[in-house]
Specification:
Length: about 950
């Protein structure tokens, strides 16, 4: 029994030893295979670790992931140790090799499990990575609305590899943010970029706040870092391999993205898109393109209002009221939205709608739901003005009717008279400072440019805001009722204690015999066309009055109480055709600086004692034609600005003006002169004898030579360049040396009805180095503007605007060779009624027009091609890179704009074509003119166009505005 047990035990041991030996043999035999498997697993875990370290920032790693990476390093060292043993296996015994193979198998399993753990952690961490786009809930823009077109415009720039920074600029309330939100959510934008980073830049922004917002968006944990530079490096590292879009909403000031994010404009096709109400910020941010967002058109505003109000608006009695409601919103989507919310509650109750409209029209003084929020948003623009000077100037403009044209020079004079213009010792400095303030107000949209070149206006919404601010001011009491169809002067309780009264553009026919207005500073009564007289005591209490405007009334005399206006600085009596008498002693007006008596019958001699005047505007008819003519003008020897209007239709005007020229040359302090010289000889007299012309002074001029012609002032004058020197040569003959001399200093030149020259080159075009604007009208002998055969250097290098009208023999703008640099700044060309003109862009000319933005061709009946192929055979696709608008009207022979669709038209935004029935092909395809926003034309013309493919037609169809 014992023997059997011993034998069994021995058998088991032998079995075990045999099994162990077999295992060792198997391990030994699988050594090479196990080595390869281990190396493969080691390679896989190394790749996993590298991927984690590459794809996931060290500032996003969890503690578990850090432990995993550390453990991975230890495993890699253990694998290397096994690999080293394997390489020395030739000297090992069989059992040692079997043990090595076994260790490799175990290590392989450990590596595999560790790798799977790493993959799981990576997947978990990937869920916490920042999403490529964070969608924002926003208003969906209507297809083909003006705001939708802005989105499409910006999309074109985002897709343009040459454009790196884009700004959306516009006044408060124009839904810049909504446009930005729609771009953030746009599918095309998501496909363009790996990541879109949206940041709202509040007014209280700081570099740290902005940086923290970006780090939070990127989900980067940077606890413990104190340096902006360190954080910028982290952001830069995170983004360096990505194509990203930085979206900055409501930028108030220049943001240094390089300092905050460590980025520059050379990073992998990434871009910056920002929105600001200040165009100065856009320039400081060095943007490549600025997209202006204007208030909605009336049609788009109506669509938006209709959509938000809903069904009640279709009621036949409510719709007309609703349209008036929309007009009160001035195209501001913010205001439309709030007003629509209020009126939606009125349902179909016509009485409530009418009451709501009346309240809205008076919302500066009546509480309306939602208006406080709008006012708060609008007042940000006002409160953000840099100083009290700008705020006072803005509020003063509210004295004028909403949307009315305010002449800039006049407005600045009123600002100066009221003491708003600081640090100005003379009129020129005051005007310069005034224009600086004016431009700041325009930049923030508190004032707007007018269609008239030297006028501004205030929209109704901002005006109501301004009036509300004034009404709440403890230091200001105002009576402002311009253009309200008043027939009677307001009640005493309305005007007493007022410091500013504006009753212009009414039907007031009589004034109170006396008023108690000791604090009155400004009184505006202009254009009360039924006002025929002023009571003798009317001005008795107005000893502090500084601005008095009576122009455009029917008064015939000034009362003796005028002499009580001892603080008066600006007096406007112009366009009072019946004014002939003044019974007051004007010597008391010791502070009067500005006097305007143009188009009156009053004699300048009656103001002769006011020798301290600084700015005088008169007409020739204000001058005495008898004995005293020699001393009428020169006695005002402190004059800085003089303007003399001439009615050249009146007999004897030229003789009077000849005498006045001799007077004017004696005024040594003039800085500005507006004058009409009857003949070139009189201009020559002024140039030779006036000390102002010879010395290097700040003297500016607006001269007409020949018959005075006020036409085209819109073209030659500019609100942006108030000190431009202007010369108009009217109905002249040939070329006089003095004209060439004056043209050397001229910035805007009008050649009207001139004879005896065939080109502008005859006037010494090589010396017109200061010319910015040029108008040529009714010159029937001119055949070309520039004769390139007569010049060997670049000419008109700074010309910006060229306007040519009714030049029947004109054959070309440029004839002959074109020197490089010529027309380098030309931005606008208008051609109208040039009956023989066939070629617009001569050979070599188009290559110089790198800044051309606007081209208008009208009633030029011989034009067959806008860009002639025979003159531009080697035209490159990048030609006319800045052209934005193209207007073609009444060109019956026009067959094509360009020979084919090879041009890129990268900046083209709008086309208008009318009465061009032979134009059947447009030079566009599916990929060019990517920024085109509108095509205006006639339905019949559009229907007759020929297309190479339907895709191009469909693409352009959506841009059409047809009638």
């Amino acid at each position: 029994m014992a023997a059997e047990t011993l034998a069994a035990t021995a058998g088991i041991e032998v079995y075990r030893d045999g099994k162990c030996i077999i295992k060792r043999i198997v391990y030994w035999m699988d050594l090479k295979r196990n080595y390869k498997k281990l190396m493969q697993e080691a390679g896989d875990i190394r790749a996993t670790k590298d991927a984690i370290c590459t794809e996931i920032s060290r500032f996003r790693l969890t503690e578990d992931m850090r432990v995993w990476i550390a453990r991975t390093g230890m495993i890699e060292e253990e694998v290397i140790e096994l690999e080293t043993k394997y390489e020395k296996k030739q000297r090992w015994r069989l059992d040692c090799l079997a043990n090595l193979s076994r260790d490799m198998t175990e290590k392989c399993n450990q590596v595999r499990n560790h790798r799977e753990e790493g993959k799981l952690q990576k997947m978990t961490l990937a869920l916490e990575l920042p999403e490529p786009v964070r969608k924002i809930h926003t208003l969906k823009l209507q297809e083909n609305s003006s705001l939708h077109k802005v989105v499409r415009h910006v999309l074109g720039f985002l897709d343009d590899e040459k454009v790196r920074r884009i700004a959306i600029c516009g006044m408060v309330g124009t839904t810049k943010t909504t446009i930005m939100e729609n771009l953030n959510n746009h599918e095309k934008v998501a496909k363009m970029f790996d990541m879109i980073i949206w940041v709202s830049v509040t007014k209280e922004w700081s570099e740290r706040k902005l940086q923290d917002a970006i780090l939070q968006r990127l989900k980067l944990d940077v606890q413990g870092l104190t340096s902006i530079e360190e954080a910028a490096l982290i952001i830069s590292e995170e983004l360096k391999e990505k194509k990203y879009l930085i979206v900055l909403d409501e930028v108030w000031d220049m943001v240094d993205l390089n300092k905050i994010m460590g980025i520059n404009d050379n990073q992998k096709d990434s871009k910056v898109l920002l929105a600001s109400r200040y165009d100065g910020v856009c320039y400081d941010m060095e943007v490549d393109e600025i997209v202006d967002v204007q208030p909605l058109s009336l049609n788009d505003a109506w669509k938006m209002f209709k959509e938000k109000v809903g069904h009640p608006i279709s009621h036949p009695l409510i719709e007309p009221i609703a349209r008036h409601v929309v007009e009160e919103c001035h195209g501001l989507p913010l205001l439309i939205d709030r007003v629509a919310r209020t009126f939606r509650k009125k349902d179909k109750n016509v009485s409530r709608w009418e009451d709501g409209l009346k309240r809205l029209q008076r919302w500066d003084s009546v509480k309306i739901e939602g208006m406080d929020e709008v006012l708060e948003r609008l007042e940000i623009c006002y409160e953000d003005l840099k100083d009290g000077e700008q705020k006072e100037c803005f509020l003063y403009a509210a004295l004028y009717p909403e949307e009315s044209e305010i002449y800039v020079d006049y407005l600045i004079e009123c600002w100066r008279a009221e003491g708003f213009i600081n640090h100005a010792n003379n009129f020129k400095q005051a005007r310069d400072r005034g224009h600086t303030v004016l431009n700041e107000l325009i930049k923030v949209s508190l004032l707007e440019r007018s269609n008239k070149s030297k006028c501004v206006k205030m929209n109704k919404v901002f005006r109501k805001m301004a009036l509300k601010i004034l009404s709440q001011s403890a230091n200001s009491k105002i009576l402002v009722k311009p253009h309200e169809e008043l027939e009677d002067f307001p009640r005493k309780e309305e005007w007493e204690l007022a410091n500013r009264i504006s009753l212009m553009d009414n039907g007031v026919s009589t004034l109170p015999k006396s008023v108690d207005c000791h604090d009155l500073l400004t009184l505006l009564l202009q254009r009360n066309k039924y006002l025929t007289s002023i009571p003798e005591l009317f001005f008795m209490s107005m000893c502090h009055l500084q601005v008095l405007d009576l122009h455009g009334t029917k008064i015939s005399a000034l009362p003796f109480s005028l002499s009580n206006l001892i603080s008066l600085k600006a007096l406007y009596l112009n366009s009072c055709p019946d004014l002939i008498e003044i019974t007051a002693s004007v010597e008391a007006l010791k502070h009067l600086e500005v006097l305007d008596i143009r188009k009156t019958k009053i004699n300048l001699l009656k103001f002769g004692s006011l020798i301290w005047l600084k700015c005088l505007r008169i007409s020739v008819c204000n001058l005495e034609t008898g004995y005293h003519i020699e001393t009428q003008v020169s006695r005002f020897d402190t004059l800085e600005e003089l303007s003399i209007d001439v009615d050249s239709s009146k007999e004897g005007w030229d003789e009077i003006v000849k005498m006045v020229v001799k007077e004017v040359v004696m005024l040594k302090k003039l800085t500005s002169l507006r004058f009409c010289f009857p003949e070139v000889d009189h201009l020559d007299l002024f140039v030779k004898h006036s000390p102002l012309w010879e010395k290097d002074s700040c003297f500016t001029f607006q001269f007409s030579v020949g018959c005075h012609d006020s036409a085209f002032a819109q073209i030659l004058e500019s609100i942006d360049n108030p000190t431009h020197n202007i010369l108009k040569l009217v109905n002249g003959q040939g070329v006089d040396p003095v004209i060439i001399k004056v043209l050397m200093e001229t910035n805007a030149f009008g050649l009207i009805g001139h004879k005896g020259v065939s080109s502008l080159s005859a006037f010494g075009i090589e010396k017109m180095n200061k010319m910015f604007n040029c108008l040529i009208d009714r010159c029937h002998e001119i055949k070309t503007i520039v004769d390139g055969h007569k010049t060997s250097e670049a000419v008109l290098k700074w010309l910006e605007n060229l306007y040519i009208k009714d030049v029947p023999k004109l054959e070309s703008i440029w004839e002959g060779p074109v020197c490089a640099g010529s027309l380098a700044q030309l931005a606008s060309i208008t051609l109208c009624k040039c009956l023989k003109l066939k070629k617009i862009f001569s050979h070599g000319m188009i290559q110089q027009l790198l800044q051309l933005k606007h081209l208008r061709v009208e009633e030029c009946y011989q034009i067959e091609e806008i860009i002639m192929e025979s003159e531009n055979a080697q035209l490159v696709p990048e030609a006319l890179p800045k052209l934005k608008t193209l207007i073609l009207l009444d060109l019956p022979r026009l067959t094509r704009i360009w020979a084919n669709d090879s041009l890129e038209w990268p900046s083209l935004q709008g086309i208008e074509i009318s009465m061009c029935d032979m134009l059947k092909i447009l030079p566009f395809n599916q990929v060019n003119a990517t920024n085109l926003q509108s095509i205006k034309g006639q339905q019949s013309w559009w229907g007759d166009l020929v297309w190479e493919d339907d895709a191009t037609k469909q693409r352009l169809q959506s841009l059409c505005i047809l009638d």
